[in-house]
Specification:
Number of strands: 13
Distance between the termini: 58 Å
Largest sheet: 6 strands, mixed
Length: about 375
């Protein structure tokens, strides 16, 4: 049945539309009444608002339409941000069937999510949800759209979930979004280093989102200070796409090809250590930077990362997924090395900064000529059948 709602400019007909909702960390879809808002012919997306949101958020559909159309206009800052990763992002988005849907996430009975936007694909349609209970167009929605449109534009590239979230959060932060920085606050108090390359959708925790975001920040700052390298890590490169390779190895290969190309000559300050653009080189350097806490060595600094409140030493052994790391003391590390064969580094920090990063093997032991301010052991699982 079609419902009618009276506005100042007359009666407006509702239509039935798919409405994704989030429960028990999964998305489901139901049919709901929704009002499609007026858009211009050149708008890259359609806009609708669910009837429940109009009532619970006290929305004026006319003003809502004006605000969103302004945000989606060709001169909007949103497209400039997305263009840093995608060629002509507004046109690219317009080639897809995208619907921006305004909803009240607080009405998800008993399972209110801890996010203010989502992207969900129903057949060939991408539904980008915005939460009207979380704030106005001016406050939250620009950064939400930057995040969710990144997911839409990455569809079909084969990106793993963690890498999608890394780039989506990078775009969100570039539009002034604070969610990535809030996730870092959770990571700062973590009791172990969370998994980086997680493939669940959505990721399992805020700490996992923080890890993905920091990896994107690390790559951008380490190699070009911006997003040029990230942009060239998105699309497949034939020589990098061996099916048996872990996904991060493909990313590293794409980045290395871009940096070493004639097109990139002169963009990067020499000397650039190309060995760091192997998958394992990226992971080693990232985890050292993560655990060094930015306090001692500028070259290991990651933008936005203030470091762990306390380095998350682990006193018991555990299995590490490929590309996962942990920090611990000598006794725990020695047991892990013997049992697992993980790659292990002794990291020593003196009064004036980093003293040494020393790769250990099973028989390695040595005495130090000084007492370091900080000494810890970093273990990384770099064992993969495809490497």
């Amino acid at each position: 049945m079609t419902a009618l709602l009276a506005f100042a400019d007359g009666a407006v007909a509702y239509t039935r539309a798919p409405r994704p909702f989030f429960k028990n960390r999964k998305f489901y879809v139901e049919e709901a009444d929704a009002l499609e808002l007026t858009t211009d012919a050149d708008e890259p997306v359609s806009i609708l608002v669910y009837s429940e949101a109009i009532n619970s958020c006290h929305l004026d559909p006319t003003q809502l339409s004006i605000g969103l159309r302004r945000l989606l206009s060709p001169t909007s800052t949103l497209w400039g941000v997305l263009n840093s990763l995608f060629e002509n992002s507004r046109v690219a988005l317009g080639r897809k069937q995208v619907e921006v849907a305004v909803d009240d996430f607080s009405t998800y009975a008993g399972d209110e999510p801890d996010f203010s936007g989502y992207m969900y694909k129903v057949k060939d349609k991408f539904i980008v949800g915005l939460d009207c209970s979380s704030g106005s167009v001016q406050n939250y929605w620009p950064s939400n759209l930057a995040h969710e449109f990144t997911h839409v534009l990455l569809d079909g590239t084969g990106a793993e979930s963690w890498w999608e979230e890394a780039l989506a959060q990078r775009m969100e932060n570039s539009m002034g979004g604070m969610q990535p920085l809030m996730a870092l606050g959770h990571l700062q108090t973590a009791r172990q280093i969370p998994e980086l390359m997680q493939v669940s959708r959505p990721l399992k925790s805020r700490e996992n989102y923080a890890m993905a975001y920091l990896f994107a920040r690390y790559v951008g700052s380490r190699f070009d200070g911006g997003t040029d390298v990230l942009k060239n890590m998105i699309l497949p490169v034939a020589e990098c796409e061996k099916s048996q390779l872990p996904y991060i190895a493909r990313l590293a290969c794409r980045a290395a090809r871009f940096i070493s190309s004639e097109k990139a000559t002169g963009l990067y300050a020499p000397p650039l250590d190309f060995s760091k653009m192997t998958a394992h080189g990226l992971l080693r350097h990232f985890y050292v930077a993560l655990t060094m806490n930015n306090a001692y060595e500028p070259k290991y600094a990651i933008p936005d990362w203030k470091g762990f409140d306390a380095l998350p030493f682990e006193k018991t052994t555990r299995d590490l997924a490929y590309g996962q790391a942990m920090v611990s003391d000598a006794q725990t590390i020695a047991h892990q090395m013997a049992a697992k064969g993980y790659e292990t580094y002794e990291i020593l920090v003196g009064p004036s900064g980093l003293y040494d990063i020393h790769l250990l093997d099973d028989a390695d032991s040595r005495s130090l000529s000084f007492s370091p301010n900080l000494k810890y052991y970093l273990m990384i699982n770099l064992q993969s059948a495809g490497m």
